Structures are given as C-alpha cells and as structure tokens.
Amino acid sequence: MTVSAPAPPTTPVAEPGGSGHRRDGRAALGFLAPSTSGFLLFTLIPLVGSLVISFFAWPVLGRRRFVGLDNFVELLTDPIFHRVMLNTLVFVLVYVPLNVVVSLGLALWISPRIRGRGLYRLLFFIPTVTPMIANALVWRLLYQPGGPIDQGFQAVFGMPSPNFLGDNRWAMAAVILMSVWQGFGYNMLVFSAGLDAIPQSLHEAASIDGAGPLRRFWSVTLPMLSPSMFFAMIMTLITSFQVFVQPYALTAGGPGVATETMVLHLYREGFVQFDLGTASTIGWFLFMIIMLVTALQFLGQKRWVHYDD
Amino acid sequence: MTTETLSRPATTQTATVRTRRATPRGVVSQVLLTAVLLLFLMPFVWMIATALKPPAEVFGAGNGLVGSEIRWSNFAEAWGYLPFGRFMINGLFVAVAGTVVVCVTSVLSAYAFARLRFRFRDRIFLLYLGTLMVPQEVTVVPMFILMQQFGWVDSYAALILPWAFTAFGTFLLRQFFLTIPRELEEAATIDGASRVRILLQVVVPIAKPAVAVLAAFTFINYWNSFLWPLIVVNSRDMSTVPLGLNLFLSQNGNQWHLLMAAAAISMLPTVVMVVLLQRHLVRGIALSGLGGR
Asked: Structural domain tally of chain B?
C-alpha cells in the first residue's frame, strides 16, 4: 500500500568509479525486464483497456459497438444497480467497524498475560487463509433450517430460528457475520504487532500520573496504535468493497437481489449475461469509489493518526 | 475486560514474571478467552463432524455432533465423486508455478529499484505503487478478452500468469532490501562478484524471511483464488480446488456430508502452510501490510 511507502531514497550513495550510471542502466534493464513486461501486459494495458471497454457494447461473442457513456447512464438509472450499490455500502458500513472492533478487542485480550498467546493468534487467524468458498459452504450448512444454529435456537427458545439465508431481513446480516468470522484475523495480527511495539514505559508513566485503565487506553494505547489502525482501515475498506465469494456461495445474491454486491453483479453481467461493456463499467464505478474513499481517509488522517516523527 | 488487560506489561520480561503469579483475574480472562476461541472454532468442528456422519443424520433435532457411526469413507467418497485428485494437482501446480514466477521477478525488480541507479527509476516505481490500489475486479474483463486473444482460455497459463506481475511483491521486497546495509554488497563488489552473484549470494540469503512471507502468501492467494478461475476455466480438467467445491455444490448441493469432507480437504494445504510459517506470521504481516482482508 502507498500508506507505508517511504519516500524514495533522496541521497544515492556514490559508488566507486564515476561511470557507474551507464552500467547500472544496462543492468537495470536486465533486472527489470521480466517484471516490467508482465506489469505492462497484465496490469497497465488491462487497466486502460477496462476504461475503453466501458464505452462499448461488448458482447463476449459477436460485434462490439461504441456507445459512448450509455453503459454509465444505464447503470446509474437502473433501480437494480441502485440496490446493488446500497447493498455494498451496507456491507462495508457494518462489516468494517465490526471487523476493527473484534480484531482490536481480541488483540488487546491476547495480551502477554495470556499463556500460549501464539497459539490463540494462530487459531483465530486460520479462517483467513482457508479457501473462502470452503468457509462459506461451512456457514451455509450452519445457517440451514435444521442445521446447528436452528437446532440451538429450538433448544433454547422452543421455536425455529429465522431462515437466515432465505429471509430478506436476515440474509445480509448472515453474510456479514460470516465475513467477520472469516476476515478479522488479519487485522488482529496487525494490531497485535502494533500493541507489542508500544513501549511499556508510556503506560507506566501514565499510571504514575494517575491515569486509570480507560484513560490510558484513550490517551496512550489508541494514539500509539493509530498508524496501525489507519493502515488496517484503508486495507479493510478497499477489500470490503470487493466482497464477492461470501454472497456468491451463501445466498447467490438473494433472496431477490437482497445481498447482490457490486462484484457479484459485475460477474453476472459480464460472465452470465455476457455483457462485458456493462461489467467493465461496474468495475470502473468500483475503482472510482475505492479511490474516493481512500483519498478521503488520507485527507482525514491528520485529525486522528499520530506518527512518532 | 479488554481495557483492563491494557495495564498489563508488554515487555516479555515482566510478562513472564506476572504470568508465573497467576492472579484470579488472569485465570478468568484465560478461561473466557478459551471459551470464545472454542465458539469461534465451532464451524470447523461442525464441518469435520458432518464430514464423518451418515447422510441421514446431518440435519434435524436429536442429531448431535457425533453421528451413530464415524464414516471415514465419506472422505474417500467425496474424493472419488469428482476428480478431486486432479483439482488438487491443478491447484498445487498453479500455486507453485505462480509463486516461483512472483518471487523470481519480484526479487529481480526489487533489487533494481533498491540498488541500481538508472533513468526514470523513481517514476517507474511510482507507477508500480500507483497500481497497488487497483482492485482485481477492474481488470478482469480486459484480462478475459486478452486471454481470448491469446487463445489461453481454459489453460494453466491463464490461471498462472495474469496475476503474477502485480506490484506488490516488488514493493514488499524493495522495502526489505533497503534495510540491508550496503557495506555487505560493496565488499563483494570489491572481490569482483557480479551483480547477479551479489543478489543471489548476499542479498537473497539476508532477505530470506521476507521472501518466505511473500512466497507463502502468494501460494495461499493462488490456492484460494476463486473469481478469476470461475471466469477463465470452463472444463473440469482445468479446475482448481475452489472451483471443484463450487462444482460439487451445483451438482449435488444437498450431499452435505460429502461437501464438508471436500471442504476439509481443500483447507488442509493452507492450514499446514500457516502452521509451518507460524513464527514469521505476526512479523510478516506487520512488515508486508497484508492486513485488511
């Protein structure tokens, strides 16, 4: 991420022999060729290409036709796409805070006082690396009527649980819950590393000054952790706008379009309806939203992120 | 609860002193945490329990965690129902090949950006950086058309190459290379070693932890990748494990005992990898900024 990118080194160390520059140029070509040619072909060209494609009616098979901004206009006036954007927004707005709270809470809880903290961290981290589709299938089983959650419900309340995946009011919540379960492990580790790096002397100094635990949390831990928080928020926001596998495997976007997200919609338009122009346009909407949100976060960071220097 | 634990020491020295004197509060905290962990692990437990049950006992009241018999044969049946062996081999091949390409190209380009001086270096690097934020979904459509043009649809090349040249590996390794003291390389230069030898024999050994982290997460990403294979693969023979699970679901989504066995099999390689990598986990994530999923 650009977040942690330091400025390029400004004072290159002089190397023996003043003629190093030209030799470096030739060597650089060799070192960079494999990476840069692939980067050009598979990153830069597709990136430009996706914008070009969004100005076309571009079926997978058959003739393509330039349509100007039609794809953009059609999507912006399509009530289904409005719902898709809303769904994605709801997912992001609920998922990101939940993820941060759970991961920060557990990172704090798994303090040095806990025995075997490495093992706890490892186990909480596991679902982030197991295939998302497998995780989602397991949760699909858990959510089934007659499944374990329903059974537990019946045992405790004496009535069946809601049909989580089939009910309009519950489906998105079910998708979000599963996503938090599977995703918070990354940020938990980011926060753990951040917490371990806070010098103990700061806490002690605050204690001597009479600060209680809550006060120390607000005035020492949170500010010291804010760079980690900023980084985690940026990454989590970006990836949560891209949510795809969870609704695909849990609800297939349903019931109706209640859990259809932008990327799921992109997939359907492009590779089920075979309308690549519309799919590419959705991709660009996504990209623009992500850039906007990231830019806003960078603008807002001065208010709450504290860097040491 | 959480705010109280803050007051605990973070340095390991004092921590060991404190843990030896187990306070009642500490014990409660540990017990509660373990309870949370067990609840958290329930989906996995239920997956394995279901994978070992007779099919009739998957749903409904009165069926506990363990069925009337432990059916290991479910795993064999799931394995045999679809060519899961083939999916595993495809997945492993794609993941290993992709990881090798990513590591080799990233080491080379990271070294160039970190150590060589050439024209437009910083501009090219900025261009790399700028694309880190581009979501994969933006480029899947043109990438698919590119694959059509190349005649690569439904091939290993399409599964491996398109995502092997992202800027991430270059960025991660460059950051690490910059922390290596130049003196080490200068000594080798005086001894007459070529740049490639310096890279392979001086820089890469020092950067091993960073390369290992990059390799492990690249492997996991390839292994788990779903959207792209779903788009570019349309035959059973080319399917990777996540696609196989999807196929399984669409063919007989109600055979939950087999589906869970298949899911458990698909998780194994990544779990093994993370357990082996455990020591580098926290450091690697802090270092590489892989957070946020």
From this structure: 2
